[in-house]
Design goal:
five-stranded parallel beta sheet; single chain; 2 domains; alpha/beta; Methyltransferase, Methionine Synthase (B12-binding Domains), Chain A, domain 1
């Protein structure tokens, strides 16, 4: 497939405006033309979601538009995933365990962050909501992620972020693990206070933070 025939711009636009069926069609066309699955992330998925992030920051997009764009990106990723698993050269940007902490059942923000991170090339282990510290310890021990992303919407539950971090330290799993926190109740000051490595005020800041932290994870 020649450079002129690459459907990257069309695919980027389909993701940005949330046309999942069109994005899947263009993905199939590109794969049939011989493009490698790993090429989709730097050429289409990541730049498309970066543009969605810019539009959200500039108040051109709001949560509904972000969600449908993320779902379109997820459609492409779901098609690529089995192919990527067969391609040893297509390593993920890093593995992220994500959750909403114990006592908190809110998941919209966490789900958006998880989708954005997956769109940026990270392998995601989503533990869901109301996740106890011992569940986090077991997940980190089992999956050996580079990053842990925790969310809390309520001031009454954000204290459980510190409980989780303390549990990881007690289990000797803190070394080499970068922890990022976010959610409506969370602030940068709180992140520093509990020993987290970074704070993301929104999903797109979380992706930028994850990229930085993954570069220094040991």
């Amino acid at each position: 497939m020649s450079e002129r025939m690459l459907p990257w711009e069309d695919l980027r636009q389909a993701i940005i405006v949330g046309q999942a069926a069109r994005a899947r069609e263009l993905t199939e066309l590109a794969l049939a033309g011989g493009l490698a699955p790993a090429e989709f992330f730097p050429n289409a998925i990541v730049p498309a979601m970066d543009e969605v992030g810019r539009r959200m920051r500039d108040c051109e997009f709001f949560v509904p538009q972000v969600l449908i764009a993320a779902r379109a990106a997820r459609t492409v990723i779901d098609r690529l995933r089995p192919l990527l698993l067969q391609d040893a050269a297509a390593a993920a940007a890093g593995r992220v365990v994500c959750c909403t902490v114990q006592g908190d059942l809110h998941d919209i923000g966490k789900n958006i962050v998880a989708m954005m991170l997956e769109s940026a090339g990270f392998a995601i282990v989503d533990l869901g909501t109301d996740v106890a510290p011992e569940q986090l310890v077991e997940a980190v021990r089992r999956h050996r992620p580079q990053l842990l992303a925790m969310s809390a919407l309520l001031t009454t539950t954000m204290v459980n972020m510190k409980t989780a971090i303390d549990a990881l330290a007690a289990a000797r799993l803190r070394s080499g693990l970068k922890i990022m926190v976010g959610g409506a109740a969370v602030t940068e000051s709180w992140a520093r206070q509990i020993g987290a490595d970074g704070y993301g005020p929104d999903a797109f800041a979380a992706v930028a933070l994850a990229r930085r932290l993954s570069l220094i994870a040991i």
